[in-house]
Design brief:
Layout (H helix, E strand, L loop, with lengths): L2 E8 L5 E13 L3 E10 L2 E12 L3 H5 L3 H13 L9 E9 L15 E8 L19 E11 L1 H6 L1 E10 L5 E13 L3 E10 L2 E12 L3 H5 L3 H13 L9 E9 L13 E10 L6 E12 L10
Antiparallel strand pairs: 1-2, 2-5, 3-4, 3-6, 7-14, 8-9, 9-12, 10-11, 10-13, 13-14
Helix pairs in contact: 2-5
Length: 306
């Protein structure tokens, strides 16, 4: 390194910018990046997502083979255009970077976050700024159980048929199935939900998804890059989960998380996903579903300690 500096400039309580640069004495031929996202619980920052190490020289090929990574790449390029670029790697510069309204990831809960990025000379090191994952790559998602039910109000007014189940084949293979058909359509349905991670014997909420109008799903999701990509992934995995209104029902058969869809930045462990369907933005509740999955991943120690 020839020059290295970074700083934050604050204007008021809501406005601040990120600045920084790193210029090298020479180029790096095979640079690799990895990092982590931390959330502050009380006074302690705990790791919630581990981003796998990747070759910066192959960034276009790597990111464009996975929809989630592709969108991550687009967001990074939009916010910090000089952070990831073609090799040889000569440096980074970013001045007066702000996260504007159209870029904000508003599914993230309020709080303090820490983001770390590590630059390596090669895939095995040495570190030009900390941590090595040498475990072999292995990742798969196993659906453990699913439960769906309608409220008394929902069954009486809307639901004609409702069923969901998981079919297991072996330790690595299981499928998600389910359907809900209505007696009548729902004109202004809203969905919300949460993602939980299991610490010891307790599931704790790690992400809260804001309630949104299913009828306006295209407009809502397409105004936010992260939500747009989330929508594309959901439509690809479960094509009938979110659709245009009027809302008549849902069907999903033999759903699997295949290699090209996998979100392999998620740590190993048990997860719970809850989804709630409301008649309108303020209710009443029509029905809900709870899904338990186990993710097997090379990242064993993420989401902090128990």
């Amino acid at each position: 390194m020839h020059n290295l500096s970074c700083w934050v400039k604050s204007y008021d309580r809501k406005t601040s910018t990120l600045n920084g640069y790193m210029w090298g004495k020479r180029t790096i031929d095979k640079p690799h990046l990895d990092g982590s996202l931390y959330y502050k619980y009380g006074t302690i920052f705990r790791e919630v997502i581990k981003f796998p190490r990747f070759n910066v020289c192959e960034v276009n090929r790597i990111f464009m083979t996975n929809k989630l990574l592709e969108q991550t790449y687009i967001i990074i390029k939009h916010i910090v255009p000089h952070l990831i670029h073609e090799c040889p790697y000569w440096g980074v510069e970013a001045y007066n970077v702000t996260v504007r309204t159209k870029d904000e990831v508003y599914m993230f809960p309020q709080g303090d976050y820490k983001f770390t990025v590590f630059l390596w000379e090669t895939v095995t090191g040495p570190l030009i700024a900390k941590r090595t994952y040498n475990s072999p790559y292995e990742f798969w998602v196993n659906f453990k159980s699913v439960k769906c039910e309608g409220t008394e109000y929902g069954i009486e007014k809307y639901m004609h048929n409702l069923s969901c189940w998981v079919k297991s084949y072996d330790r690595k293979t299981s499928t998600l199935n389910g359907y809900m058909w209505g007696k009548r359509t729902i004109d202004k349905p809203h969905l919300d939900g949460s993602l939980y991670y299991k610490y010891g014997t307790i599931f704790r909420e790690v992400i809260k998804f804001p309630r949104f109008n299913v009828c306006e799903v295209n407009r809502i999701f397409m105004t936010n890059k992260l939500f747009e990509q989330t929508y594309i992934i959901i439509k690809h995995i479960v094509p009938h989960l979110i659709h245009e209104c009027p809302y008549w029902g849902v069907e999903a058969y033999n759903v699997t998380v295949r290699t090209k869809d996998e979100i392999y930045m998620f740590p190993q462990g048990d997860y719970k996903v809850t989804i709630f369907l409301f008649e309108t933005e303020i209710g009443p509740l029509v029905g809900n579903a709870t899904l338990i999955v186990t993710i097997y991943s090379p990242y064993k120690d993420s989401f902090g300690k128990k």
